[in-house]
């Protein structure tokens, strides 16, 4: 994988918020659902996800910045061994030259002991950690690969925080607790649920896709709904039934309410990251019947004398 900062299009000094924002933007743009005809987009989506996986982990990001691991999370070559000889370390520290090592054997010191301390063990025919004296470090056991999953979540379930069942590649099913503030592109990590490896299993990375709803709309932590009401309900006021993500409730419409008036139902929105829940905002829309003779008769001779369009200058 290329440099994760370049993959996400952020500077090395980018904050966690900047990295998360860049990932969400790219994830939405490259999501397989939106690019069914473009396999390259799926590859790019996978690269972006791996880059975010590394940079969103504070420990991994710090180790990458110090040159201890590469962009795939694998240990980097110590002492610059990838270029041959003993150069500078990837982390920018001092390397060991041939001159630095001269004389190590003159006072009885054992090069094998020295390198055993540096590389964590001996290998026959070379310095500790080097096989056959060819200058190649022994690669430590690796964890298994991470496994990618995509989970579609119904709008109502996301708003109410309902647990979601997912089937893993090994056939096992688990129930996931959705995090507060879950939205399209949110990624959940399941430790040890990936592929097996010599150093243990990798993780399962679950990307959430929240389904749209026929009449609810999300706005941050709030839920919006356009509610049609009749003319008599608008003029005289009424108690009307209103759907919410938690079930229907009764709402009071005050006399003289017009289209565009917004009523607020507290705590009927999405769980917020900081705790609590958003609200449901209900926008009233007066729905007039077409060609209603009785309504025409009732309004005969009555005129609304207000100049509603005076602010337009006409």
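-> sequence recovered:
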């Amino acid at each position: 994988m290329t440099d994760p900062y370049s993959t996400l299009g952020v500077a090395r000094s980018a904050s966690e918020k900047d990295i998360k924002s860049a990932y969400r933007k790219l994830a939405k743009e490259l999501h397989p659902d939106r690019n069914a005809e473009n396999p390259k987009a799926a590859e790019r989506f996978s690269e972006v996800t791996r880059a975010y996986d590394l940079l969103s982990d504070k420990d991994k990001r710090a180790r990458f910045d110090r040159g201890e691991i590469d962009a795939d999370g694998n240990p980097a070559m110590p002492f610059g061994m990838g270029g041959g000889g003993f150069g500078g370390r990837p982390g920018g520290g001092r390397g060991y030259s041939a001159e630095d090592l001269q004389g190590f054997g003159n006072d009885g010191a054992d090069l094998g002991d020295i390198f055993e301390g540096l590389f964590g063990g001996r290998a026959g025919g070379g310095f500790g950690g080097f096989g056959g004296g060819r200058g190649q470090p022994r690669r430590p056991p690796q964890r298994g690969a991470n496994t990618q999953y995509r989970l579609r979540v119904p709008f109502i379930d996301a708003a109410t925080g309902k647990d979601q069942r997912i089937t893993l590649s090994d056939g096992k099913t688990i129930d996931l607790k959705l995090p507060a503030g879950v939205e399209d592109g949110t990624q959940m990590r399941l430790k040890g649920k990936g592929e097996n490896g010599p150093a243990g299993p990798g993780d399962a990375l679950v990307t959430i896709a929240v389904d749209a709803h026929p009449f609810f709309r999300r706005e941050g932590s709030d839920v919006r709904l356009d509610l049609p009401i009749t003319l008599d309900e608008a003029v005289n006021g009424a108690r009307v039934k209103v759907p919410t993500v938690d079930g229907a409730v009764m709402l009071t419409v005050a006399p003289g309410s017009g289209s565009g008036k917004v009523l607020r139902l507290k705590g009927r929105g999405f769980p917020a990251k900081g705790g609590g829940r958003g609200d449901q905002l209900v926008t009233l829309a007066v729905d007039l019947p077409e060609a209603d003779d009785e309504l025409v008769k009732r309004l005969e001779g009555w005129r609304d004398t207000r100049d509603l369009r005076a602010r337009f200058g006409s």
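The mean pLDDT is 82.
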